[in-house]
Write a structure and sequence with these properties.
By secondary structure, the protein is mainly α. It has three helices and two strands, in the order βαβαα. The longest helix is centred in the C-terminal third of the chain and has 22 residues. The protein starts with a strand and ends with a helix.
Length: 88
């Protein structure tokens, strides 16, 4: 099942094909041929699992530090990703 639809933000047909395929908004988007088994229920189960892990980390004073440091760590990872994905 290979349906294609025009992305709503594809406003520049003058781009070369390689530039249009790098980002789905710039070219044609193909329907996904494989869906995750159990989706979307499994997505919610995974979120509940991660919340349970965070609750267990909170209960132990020795691992509570990980919850304090995690937002800064994720911000640092996001900054690194943003810097590495910029055009040179």
């Amino acid at each position: 099942m290979s349906h294609t639809r025009r992305a709503p933000c594809a406003r520049n047909p003058q781009l070369p094909p390689c530039a249009r395929t790098r980002h789905p908004c710039l070219g044609r988007v193909h329907a996904v041929s494989f869906r995750m088994p159990g989706a979307p229920v499994v997505n919610w189960i995974m979120i509940l699992f991660l919340l349970a892990v965070a609750a267990m980390l909170w209960l132990d004073p020795g691992t509570r530090v990980a919850l304090y440091v995690a937002p800064f760590w994720f911000a640092l990872l996001g900054l690194g990703y943003w810097r590495s994905s910029r055009s040179w």
